[in-house]
Design goal:
186 residues; alpha+beta; Cyclic Phosphodiesterase, Chain: A; five-stranded antiparallel beta sheet; four-stranded antiparallel beta sheet; 9 strands; globular
């Protein structure tokens, strides 16, 4: 049996992000957008996809092995942006500043170690971000452009990363449920 898995850092949401989320929903309320639930905020270090559950103990061991070389560290959640395809927004995100590039190093090490289990290494450069929404269609791109311009350099919150989590993503009609399978302290 398989489970849809990913490795991530959970982000507890503070007031500034809640307020931003409400403003975005108000301004973009007529658009076809799937908003990420605030309690699901995270940034992904490695997406594993559908995975045979017999591999979970080996994946957990790799996550523990990688995490032991890292100490807790501080990140800054700053800036609003989007990923686009053919000029159309596909994902609206919050940026993550990691001046010491610890997240990048964690991602690279997880990619390298998990390759031994047959997981393909990510070919794109790692870019830490928190997905706020997945865009189906925006008729009025200028509203989104204005919002991104307004909040592109806004500081939202600091966060001390103390652990990484192996999650199961359970897809449901009203949005995914992220179930932590193991939490590994740094």
């Amino acid at each position: 049996m398989s489970k849809r898995l990913f490795i991530a850092v959970h982000i507890p949401v503070l007031t500034d992000i809640i307020e931003l989320s409400q403003k975005l929903k108000q301004r973009l309320n007529k658009e076809r957008i799937n908003w990420v639930s605030l309690h699901n905020f995270h940034f992904t270090l490695k997406f594993l996809g559908d995975t045979d559950e017999v591999l979970i103990p080996e994946i957990a061991a790799i996550v523990q092995h990688v995490a032991k070389d890292f100490n807790p560290f501080e990140i800054v959640i700053k800036g609003l942006g989007r990923f686009s395809s053919s000029g159309h927004a596909k994902v609206i995100w919050l940026g993550v500043e990691d001046t010491e590039e610890v997240l990048n190093t964690l991602s690279i090490q997880l990619n390298n170690q998990l390759a031994g289990l047959g997981f393909k290494a990510e070919s794109r450069p790692f870019r830490a971000h928190i997905t706020l929404a997945r865009v189906k269609n925006i008729r009025n791109q200028s509203v989104l452009n204005d919002l991104i311009h307004t909040y592109s350099h806004t500081h939202f919150q600091n966060h001390k990363v103390k652990d990484i989590i192996l999650y199961q993503s359970i897809l449901k009609p009203l949005g995914p449920i992220y179930k932590p399978l193991i939490t590994v302290p740094l």
